Amino acid sequence: MAIKKHKISLANLRKKIKLFEEQDIVVLYSAIFVTGGKKDKFVDKASVSKLALITKNLKCENPDKIKVELYDSKDLVNTIWFTEFKFNEPEIVSEIPKQSGFQGLGELEIGRIVDERFKERQRLEEYEQLKERVMELAEENEEFQDTIDELQTENERLEKIIESKTQVRYYAGMLGDILESFGIAKSKVKSPLASLMGVTEEEEKEEEIQYTRSKSEPTKETTEQQDEIPTFTFNEDGRNEIITLMSEYLKHVNDQILGEVFSIFSDIEKTPTLAKELIQYLHSK
User: CB–CB of 79/70 below 8 Å?
Assistant: First the structure.
């Protein structure tokens, strides 16, 4: 008789893993196949996104049981939970009617018994076919669930990257506007800001084209105005925004630049007119 392949459902195991993940525990698992007295570790501390490895190995193995152990990725020595899938089931033995005292059966009785046995066998075959199909669908569901978990993880990673990049673009753009208001042309800081915002070379060229189109041709009057020292007037919200952006910028510079900027601020505090002289010098450069 052909050996019937074992099949299992990992739905309850997945629920347990989900509970650990809700506690911010990164779960790894091991799967040990036990046949007789022999133990084979088919999966050793793998990501739970690869649970389908159990069912894939089960297709070519017929163990007596499978032991699944869960580990915290920060502690690979002590298990945090384990479970077993046992396959030892009693064999179904057909009942053989006793021969002693057999008085014989009529033709109708024999036909009824044969018909009942035939229907019973047919029901058992249909049941086994349905059971086989259910297990196949369960396996497919496990594989789909692994794919969904991987896609969900990748989606969360991309969302974090996009959110971080958007924030960097916003603050870097504001920093460019502030530097321009101090008389520093955006063209001089375009490349560092583009790198800070994560803009590629092609995106930078496209933005440069759009920026150029949005500007009108410079006139003599506007050229003369560029040589003048700009006058700044801000409302309360504008002042707070500028102070916040300058503070954020200084948090990320190295010690050398931080010391130099502090020295400039100290000199301006002692002699406020130095600010205009610095702007004039920057214009001349």
Answer: yes
Per-residue pLDDT, 92: 40
Q: Per-residue pLDDT tens for 139-148? A: 788 778 888 8
pLDDT at 203 (0 to 100): 57
| Ranges of the chain with pLDDT below 50 | 1-2, 90-99, 221-222, 225-226
Q: How far, in Å, CA of 88 to CA of 65, rounded?
A: 8
Residue of 134, 153, 152 lying closest to 11 (CA atoms): 134
Q: What pTM was computed for the model?
A: 0.35
C-alpha to C-alpha distance for 32 and 56, rounded to whole angstroms: 14
Q: Find the farthest-apart pair of alpha carbons in the chain and give their distance in angstroms, rounded.
A: 128
In contact, 3 and 58? CB cutoff 8 Å:
no
Q: Is 52 within 8 Å of 143 (Cβ atoms)?
A: yes
68: tokens are 């699944």
Residue 245's alpha-carbon distances to 19, 239, 240, 250, in angstroms, are: 42, 10, 9, 9
* pLDDT computed for residue 136 by the predictor: 79
Question: How far apart are alpha carbons 173 and 169 in whole angstroms?
Answer: 6
What is the b/e burial string over 1-25, where b = at least 16 CB atoms within 10 angstroms of the residue's CB? eeeeebbbebeebeeebeebeeeeb
Alpha-carbon torsion (56, 17, 66, 10), positive or negative: negative
**pLDDT value for 94:** 41
Do 27 and 20 form a contact (C-beta atoms < 8 A)? yes
**Separation between Cα atoms, residue 166 and residue 156, nearest integer Å:** 15
DSSP string, 76-98: EEEEEEEEEEE---PPP-PPPPP
CA gap 141, 135 in Å, rounded: 10
Where are the strands (E) in the chain, listed by range? 27-35, 38-47, 65-72, 75-86
What region, left, alpha or beta, does residue 104 occupy, with left being phi > 0 and alpha being psi -120 to 50 degrees? left
